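Supplementary notes for students who missed Thursday's class. We covered one full example, reproduced here. Read the sequence, then the structure, then the short commentary at the end.
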Amino acid sequence: MGGLIAIYRKELGDYFSSYRFVILFALIAMVSFITSYIAAISLRESIAQDAMRGRFLFLMLFSTEGARFSMIQFVAFFGPLIGLFLGFDAINRERAHGTLVKMVSQPIYRDAVINGKFLAGVTVITVMIVAIVLVISGFGLTLLGVVPEVEEILRIAVYVVISIFYISFWLGVSILFSILFRSTATSALASVAAWILLSFVIFFGASAVANAVAPVDQRGGGDMETLMRNVQITETVSLFSPMVLYTNSTATIVDPKVKTTKSFILQGPWEQILSTRFQNPLSLSQSLVVVIPHLISLVAITFICFAVSYTVFMVQEIKM
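Structure (token representation):
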């Protein structure tokens, strides 16, 4: 335990004292604040014109689009860069400087090295996300003049936890590549390639796979069964992207009016009548029930990715 604490404290000191962390945090925070500020101004104008009433106005600060995207969309697209930049040289940097051999030659177990580095990275991610959310919440209190309800605070807390797990998954990916490759440039390139593949290629390639398996006439022809199969295949393939898991779950948590993560639902006449009668927003417990499969999947891939990194590091030979 003493070795783990020593590595943890060392990594925290390295992170918070590095220019890379300062530049990354400043960039992410600046874009987040600008996006939220524009969204808050738009919401304030809507409230002043009585165009927007009801509950959960404070949550709209995170879901309303500001400068082309909302806070949720910004974290979904660019949040992984935080995890990738924090961990792409976690192990191979120690190899290059010759400090990895010195660390494991001390009374420090090998697993304390990777555990300490991962926990320190998660701590830094937590500090960054919590700080950004608190500042954005301050924007809401100042610009909107709306005090959040207890359920809104709980929903924001759940959103923060989901964001931490999401970015921690990419931290685990970058640490894995830093173990597999001795060159920091190679591990950084592989991390970015994995981000592009899992976030964009799968997301945009899902429709191509669906059209190949169940082609749909773009002019609106075709039967409903083929259309439903096309949509189902698209959504199933998209779930292999962590970005889709994160976006669907956080959109449902932050917006209580969202009642499903599916993009297309076929309803009969009676179902349409029932849906029009039940327009009330979901409670937090009901929203959690809707997104629990996505949350379990997101937490699972985070632990699996770190477990693979842990296993590879423990069996890998350490030498100069």
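Commentary. The radius of gyration is 22 Å. Residues 131 and 141 are 15 Å apart (CA to CA). If anything here is unclear, bring it to office hours.
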